[in-house]
Amino acid sequence: MVISESLISIIFRGINTFMVVVCAVYAFNKYALVRIKQAMDKKEQELINLRLQGTRLGLEIKKIELQIKKEEDNVVHMQEKILKWREVVDAMHKVQIGNQKSSLFNMRVRQATKKAHIHSAYMQKQAAPDAISQARALLKEHFQSPHVAQQYITDIIVFMQASKQ
Amino acid sequence: MNFVEVMIAKKYALAVMAVFYDSLSLPIVERGASLALYIRTHPDILSFLQVSAINDDEKRAGLMSLIERYELPNCMQQLVDLLLVDKRTFLFAGILQAIYTLYLERQHIMSFTITSSHLLSESAVYSIQKFLARNTGNTIIYMCIVDPTLIAGVRLANTTLFWEHSVARQLRDAQNILV
């Protein structure tokens, strides 16, 4: 009897426990599980979103890195171009300076030549003929005296006598 | 006279020299040169000799009168006859001039014109003659001219040689240098 009572009590206890557990599971399923599932779904969604965002950001970073590399390449290219441009500018500047010096020299030469021509023309047209005619007049006057002229001729004759073949 | 005529005249002159050299003398060739100058300075005589329509006898008579006036020897008459035959009487003056030049060359004589600013004394002319003879190695005959444009000095010149020492020349040189 005792054994049956205890068995029955154990069974009932088991049944009670089972019932409690069923009730608890029911209550859990009915009230907490949905919320938990919703919270988990939300978290999962947030996680997916974060992953997507991470992927997008990674892509953007890669894109930006590519752009930075491209920009850096551009900078190097531009620097090379600037160097070349500077070289060309320097060369042109040197040529320009050379041309300026050359044109300045040519201008000076032209000026000097023109001055010489003017001087020569003056000498030819005026100064030299004037000087020659003045000298001729002076010499004519000087040798007008027969004595002076004869002396001049005598000197020539003496030279002739002194000269050898 | 052009170059060809001068060359032909020289050939006639050489022929005269070869044949009649002994009958020539310095005064004769000088008179011949004077006659040549006279003919050249009178173009009407040259025209007279060049016109073929004029009778040869008239040309001969004209040339003979000139030869007589300048007291040239008979060989010149023979030359005229030859030129009449060859129809080259217009070369007569050139031939006389060539004879003069050739005779002087053969005799080693050089003719000079001595130009001076003032009249030269005899001793001065003699010194000049000696100077020229010494430098050319030839006998010198000369003609003196006074030219005041020299201002002072002497000029000695012939057809090939020129020597001048005068104030005019110095002025000329100065002018050439300056102008």
Q: Number of helical runs of chain A?
A: 2
- Series of H and E elements of chain B: HHHHHHEHEEEH
Mean pLDDT over the residues of chain A: 88
Number of domains of chain B: 2
Query: Major beta sheet of chain B, specifics?
Result: 4 strands, mixed
How is the largest sheet of chain B built, in terms of strand order? 2-1-3-4
Biggest protein-protein contact in the assembly:
A-B, 27 and 23 residues
Q: What kind of oligomer do you see? A: heterodimer
Given helix and strand content, the structural type of chain B is alpha+beta
Beta-strand content estimate of chain B:
5-15%
Which shape of chain B, going by the Cα principal axes? elongated
The strand count of chain B comes to 4
Strand content of chain A: under 5%
General shape of chain A: rod-shaped
Task: Give a count of the beta strands of chain A, DSSP E runs of length 2 or more.
Answer: 0
